[in-house]
């Protein structure tokens, strides 16, 4: 499942009088066509608002900034286009006056060797350095392209722009995300401790609810309630129920109804749920199926009240537009130092589990009774791309920190139960040293994408979170 909102970008076309104006006029037409092709909505001056629609003078900067402020709520980021040297102060003043606080991508056109005469030369190579220098002086964060200069239609820039849109989604989403913490952290899981205060300082809100409220409201429902019947239909449409007894399916459905109501009432983007072991002992089933369905529907849900775990899931979902899953760094894979086993009882999104079915949780069953663990999902993840990572609050330092990287999920043989996958990662042993030395959790998040670069740019450059990119 993929969810990609149409992006809206403010566009500044730089200009400088010493250089050919025709390059600005040509670039404006090219930019409009290019963004339309990529389904990106531009907010930019018309060619009647300023000289050829470019920005050079302070008056033009004021006019462009006013336009951006008018569309403040819609603009996800700003694209700066330099068809010639461009006026660095014009770009910087526009962004300063607009006060958007969104990511900024700087593109500069490349020159043709046979067009370095007075009427055709661009000098955007030099102009880009000047623009970046001014943005640095103004304290405005910005993103660079893979190549210092290129044309809009170059494949490298096309990827740069689409990655930048991903950066915009991550930044915008993480600055206002709302997380639901359902129940208390299981006492045996000190590893998932976190700081609500550090998260709130970064715009991330946590809404808590006692698990007894959720279970109490679930117990008030019956199999005859329309909401429960509708949830049962959705469960049957979502997965094979295997040998799950009908009364257990009703329990799962009732719990799902209450969790959905809690999320809607509090406008939550994701949840972290106490699933070990109170739900099994006091309610009689696992919540994995509900968590999987939520994650598949782009409402990430993490177990063991791992709040920064579900925050990591949400960040990766924003970067890729596809569901994420919370997993354990769980086992070595024989003697292969580049591979490991990823595992959890059974709450991964359906996108990772083509052979999905409702089952039980054997490990939990040894202490709470297997009959009380129906709702866990069983399934093996096949080969697919892998981005992995983790966001954590470092309470001792008072900061948010993260690590991200890329690898592959493989089809290597794996005989076990639950949700399971084999990951191959270059210098895996070095990565594990980084995880252990820096006090990260045993939980990590996986996403079927290659978006580590997007996440690092968003989290480190724009959000100010120390982010390690493993490579």
Automatic annotation (TrEMBL):
SUPFAM superfamilies: FucI/AraA N-terminal and middle domains
Organism: Niabella yanshanensis
Lineage: Bacteria, Pseudomonadati, Bacteroidota, Chitinophagia, Chitinophagales
PANTHER family associated with the record: FUCOSE ISOMERASE, L-FUCOSE ISOMERASE C-TERMINAL DOMAIN-CONTAINING PROTEIN
UniProt domain L-fucose isomerase C-terminal: residue ranges: 342-469
Keywords, sorted A to Z: Carbohydrate metabolism, Isomerase
Pfam families on file: Fucose_iso_C (PF02952)
GO molecular function, one term: isomerase activity
Domain of life: Bacteria
Protein name: L-fucose/L-arabinose isomerase family protein
Database matches in InterPro entries: Fuc_isomerase_C, Fucose_isomerase_N/cen_sf
């Amino acid at each position: 499942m993929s969810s990609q909102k149409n992006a809206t970008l403010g566009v500044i076309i730089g200009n400088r009088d010493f250089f050919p104006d025709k390059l600005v006029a040509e670039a404006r037409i090219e930019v409009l066509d290019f963004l339309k092709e990529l389904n990106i909505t531009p907010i930019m001056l018309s060619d009647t608002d300023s000289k050829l629609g470019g920005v050079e003078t302070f008056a033009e900067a004021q006019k462009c900034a006013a336009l951006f402020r008018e569309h403040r709520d819609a603009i996800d980021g700003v694209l700066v286009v330099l068809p010639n040297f461009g006026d660095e102060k014009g770009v910087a003043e526009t962004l300063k006056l607009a006060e958007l606080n969104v990511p900024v991508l700087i593109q500069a056109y490349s020159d043709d060797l046979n067009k370095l005469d007075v009427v055709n030369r661009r000098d955007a190579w030099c102009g880009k350095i000047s623009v970046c220098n001014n943005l640095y002086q103004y304290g405005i964060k910005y993103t660079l392209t893979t190549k210092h200069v290129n044309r809009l239609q170059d494949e490298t820039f096309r990827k740069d722009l689409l990655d930048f849109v991903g950066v915009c989604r991550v930044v915008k989403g993480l600055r206002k995300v709302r997380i639901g913490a359902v129940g208390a952290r299981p006492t045996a899981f000190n590893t998932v401790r976190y700081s609500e205060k550090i998260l709130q300082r970064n715009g991330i809100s946590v809404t808590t609810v006692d698990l007894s409220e959720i279970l109490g409201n679930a117990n008030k429902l019956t199999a005859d309630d329309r909401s429960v019947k509708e949830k049962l239909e959705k469960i049957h449409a979502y997965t094979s129920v295997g040998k799950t007894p009908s009364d257990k399916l009703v329990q799962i459905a009732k719990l799902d109804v209450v969790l959905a109501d809690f999320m809607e009432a509090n406008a939550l983007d994701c949840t972290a749920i106490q699933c070990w072991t109170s739900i099994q002992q006091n309610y009689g089933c696992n919540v994995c199926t509900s968590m999987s369905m939520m994650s598949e529907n782009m409402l990430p849900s993490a177990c063991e009240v791992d709040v920064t775990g579900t925050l990591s899931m949400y960040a990766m979902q924003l970067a890729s537009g596809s569901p994420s899953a919370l997993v354990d760094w769980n086992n070595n894979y024989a003697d292969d130092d580049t591979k490991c086993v990823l595992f959890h009882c059974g709450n991964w999104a359906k996108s990772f589990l083509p052979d999905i079915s409702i089952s039980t949780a054997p490990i939990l069953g040894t202490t709470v009774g297997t009959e009380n663990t129906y709702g866990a999902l069983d399934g093996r993840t096949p080969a697919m791309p892998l981005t992995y990572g983790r966001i954590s609050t470092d309470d001792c330092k008072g900061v948010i920190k993260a690590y991200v990287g890329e690898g592959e999920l493989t089809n290597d043989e794996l005989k076990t139960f639950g949700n399971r996958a084999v990951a191959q990662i270059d210098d895996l042993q070095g990565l594990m040293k980084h995880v252990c030395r820096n006090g990260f959790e045993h939980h990590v998040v996986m996403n079927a994408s290659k978006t580590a670069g997007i996440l690092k740019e968003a989290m480190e450059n724009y959000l100010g979170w120390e982010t390690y990119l493993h490579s």
